[in-house]
Amino acid sequence: MLFWIFVFLLTRQSSLTQGHPDLLSRAATEASCDCTVNSCRTLFDIVWGCLATIFACTWVALHQNVPDPDLGHFALLMRKLRMMLVMIIAPEFVVGFAARQFASARWISKEFDVSKSHGFFCNMGGFVSEEGHPVSSIKQFPAYISAIRKIKKADIEDKSKGDTLSKGIAIAQGLWFVTQCLARVSQHLPLTELEVATLAFAVLSVAIRLLWLHKPLDVQQPIVVARSEVDIDPLEEEDITPMNNDSNDFSDKIGGIFGNHAHYHPISSTSVPSFYYIEMNSNSTNLFIILAGIFGVGSIFGSIHCAAWNALFPSIAEMWIWRISSVFIAAYPVLTTLIITLGAWVNVNIAKHVFTILMVLGAVGYPLCRLFLIILSFTTLRSLPPSTFVDVNWSNYIPHL
């Protein structure tokens, strides 16, 4: 409810300046006069503040799974850059991935009587067998759970490159940017399109950091655990075809973002995929997490961009491109969720055809809309009203005599 009130206030503030040119001109003049008394910000301040926040919301916020031990520094860098690119283009998928890992870690914690840190470490491929294969399947747990329980929670947290305090500071940074935006709205100061786009990243970043609060950050080396003497790894008895480079193609990488790891098997790998999480026994829970984590958050992400619906754009074409792209990103997840939900009560074949059409439309339209919003966030900076450069007067919120 608070989120939608915030979006309404942003839209209302933008409409006041868009619909009344005289009011805009007067506000701009008053803002210029205020700049002689109050502090002002420059275009560099706006861009630098937004880019720093986006970097913190993407690069710093990412809690990757444990990589292959044989990867070099350059390969590790490219691995994180690829995941950062996914978060910039479709951050709601990363939120959905974080939500699935959180639910899986919580389920492992309750089911096998370990901490959430243990659950996250299992999901990220942190425990490996003596042969170097990840213990990342429910079937493997009975044979390794005794050794996993002997690993102290402090030992897992010691592997992390960030503690609760540093993660809390990072969350506070995102909340600070949101507070600045709220303060500008309350003082009738306009937000740039870049700030609105950054605000969307900041809101999603806070959600990601909270979901990954107990997940170790940037772990490079796994912990070796031994199986029980009376048990063997049940996966060793299966007929396993080792992975090859042909199965690790582009379609598998895209499927991994949605939680589909058809070609992955622990015994034929030395690390888990980038978007891997351990499947739980409850399919209904998985479906709920996917819908709420990906589609729901995706709609919120697009809705925040809609807050700049009536903002001042340099041209009419740019205004309509922003509006159409924002509506598409906000409405597409809701429409997809609706089709999936209705598929349980209507003709399944019809629902499948409609869902397929939506997937094709999303595969083409969604990246284009995200690209348009990213480009417009910077191109619209070439023409800004003077009131944009007025900084927030924080003394209005501090009690003083």
From TrEMBL:
<feature type="transmembrane region" description="Helical">
    <location>
        <begin position="287"/>
        <end position="312"/>
    </location>
</feature>
<feature type="transmembrane region" description="Helical">
    <location>
        <begin position="324"/>
        <end position="348"/>
    </location>
</feature>
<keyword id="KW-0472">Membrane</keyword>
<feature type="signal peptide">
    <location>
        <begin position="1"/>
        <end position="19"/>
    </location>
</feature>
<feature type="transmembrane region" description="Helical">
    <location>
        <begin position="355"/>
        <end position="378"/>
    </location>
</feature>
<keyword id="KW-0812">Transmembrane</keyword>
<feature type="transmembrane region" description="Helical">
    <location>
        <begin position="43"/>
        <end position="62"/>
    </location>
</feature>
<feature type="transmembrane region" description="Helical">
    <location>
        <begin position="83"/>
        <end position="103"/>
    </location>
</feature>
<keyword id="KW-0732">Signal</keyword>
<keyword id="KW-1133">Transmembrane helix</keyword>
<protein>
    <submittedName>
        <fullName>Uncharacterized protein</fullName>
    </submittedName>
</protein>
